[in-house]
Amino acid sequence: MLIVDDLRARKTASKLGLRIMGTVGVLLAAAEKKILRPEELKTCCDLLQKSGFRLSRQLVVWVEKWKSSRS
Asked: Which helix (H) or strand (E) holds 28?
């Protein structure tokens, strides 16, 4: 897995047919594999937002619903 947060790199990866996953996708994958607990996923998202990382309202609501369904 290669993790980059650069638009040009993501576009190149897409052209090469590589799977693209954002920051929250990586965190969600960790939660689904039980590397993170559901509440830790929510905490990570909260911390990202507090540090200025933009998460859509729709994504925040989805993470909260996902957390509630797993708790």
From this structure: helix 23-32
Asked whether 38 and 31 are in contact (CB, 8 A), the reply is yes
Total Cβ atoms within 10 A of residue 37: 14
27-33 long-range contacts, CB within 8 A, separation 24+: 28/63, 28/66, 31/66, 31/70
Write down the pTM of the prediction. Answer: 0.74
Interval 4-59: pLDDT, tens: 778 888 899 889 998 888 888 899 899 999 999 988 999 999 999 999 998 888 98
3-state SS class at 67: helix
CA distance 69 to 66: 5
Number of residues assigned to the chain: 71
